[in-house]
Design a protein that fits this description.
Length: 284
Amino acid sequence: MSAITPPLDDARRGFTLAQYRICFSGIVWREALRFLHQRERFVSALVRPLLWLFIFAAGFRQVLGISIIPPYETYILYEVYIAPGLMAMIQLFNGMQSSLSMVYDREMGNMRTLLVSPLPRWYLLFCKLLAGTAVSLLQVYAFLVIAWFWDIAPPPIGYLTVLPALILSGLMLGALGMLISSGIKQLENFAGVMNFVIFPMFFASSALYPLWRVQEGSPLLYYVCLLNPFTHAVELIRFALYGQTNWISLAVVGCCTAAFMIGAIYAYDPSRGLVRRGPAGGET
């Protein structure tokens, strides 16, 4: 046995870049196929923000006028203001959908096939996180194309400068969903937990109304919004869409991304985290 152990340890440490690339492409391809086979997921991801844009924004346009606040240099329509928040909402729901698929895979046993790979666990989870973020980028840019016909047109360079912000916010929200999924043992419990996470994060943020208006109405809610990572994801996207950088939001989103990812890696470690082997050898 002692003669066999060292080669196994060496094999675990000695993966080549080609092997890492094959693993990454396999996970991304699997997520892409799942996305293509679930076309209703793409449609539903667009229906939610478009309903807010076409109906909610039209009803509140006259009530919630937006004064000149950074990064805007003039008065703007309400639908222009909420567009970055709706982009972040797409990524929030996509992150939760990805975590739902992880709960499903764990119940069906597919997660065990992934996690028993000799490749590092953090790399496997990070690949899945990147694949989910890539899917959310497609959905966000499809939303921007439709929003352009609704006279929501940021500077042309904004479609490019917003990409890094979308990647970082997508990673943060995906890592949050991954961390939450580690503690959900049954698929039936997913809906309640997700509603408890999604709606407070979305409504207690700057997605629908500027924070100075929140502060006028409720100072306590204002501080809750400031502590909400989703607020900073929205503001990071908002500023990037106009070629600017909100450094505070960038720091908060970056730190939260790292914290959520480290927590998910720890939680998916059977020897330490929340995902432990059951009596039958599968995940619980």
